[in-house]
Amino acid sequence: MCSGGFAKCLGITLMPLAIVCVLCNILLFFPSGQPVEQDHITKQVWYFGGILGSGVLMIFPALVFLGLKNNDCCGCCGNESCGRRFAMLSSILFAAVGVAGAGYSVVVSSVAINQGPKCVVSKNGTNDVWGTPFGNGDYLSNTTLWKLCIEPSGVVSWHLSLFSVLLVMGLIQVALCAVQVVNGLLGAICGDCCGCCGGVSISVETIN
After folding, report:
1. pLDDT-based confidence at 82, cuts 50/70/90?
2. CB 54, CB 105: distance < 8 Å
């Protein structure tokens, strides 16, 4: 496969991952699907790891990867001035942006999973006391601690599930962008279509 075509495949894969991350971050603003006051939302949600890191900063590299192959890859054979090598080289910079964005989302998600959600930890008459009862990640292995969160109902599983999705998606995005760094280097050094060029050369020699 030509390096441009491979980059396009990466871009097609990154787009839905970015959309999923944005949706997960938005859902985190509604613990257990319930609207709450801003002060009652976990602070890591406001860091926009899914919206900014794995979302917006990932869409730009994905669009660049999609545009690297916009015509027949064999059309660049023997024409180094067509800019294909430079395009593959520049894609490395966008891949680095993607790695940084996804890495940011991974860090935020990891911290959020470790600290747990913000929830009602006790009721004092008509006033609910909100807090973060988990801070060392013990609740991950001891589900009985989840009872410390009185409301919203199911907030722990909601928090853990969505941030876990963000963590996994971020790791996948980092891996895909790292692959594009290698692919971009090969495309810049060998040309976008080394395999195609070789095939054309063999065909020409056979005809002769």
Report:
1. low
2. yes
Distances (CA, A) of 161 to 84, 144, 152, 165, 188: 42, 17, 15, 6, 40
Give the amino acid at 127.
Answer: N
**Using CA of residue 113, residue 114, residue 120, residue 121, what is the dihedral sign?**
positive
Nearest to 180, CA basis, from 79, 98, 70: 98
- Say what the pTM is: 0.84
Q: What is the share, in percent, of the chain residues with pLDDT greater than 70?
A: 83
15, 59 contact by CB (below 8 A): yes
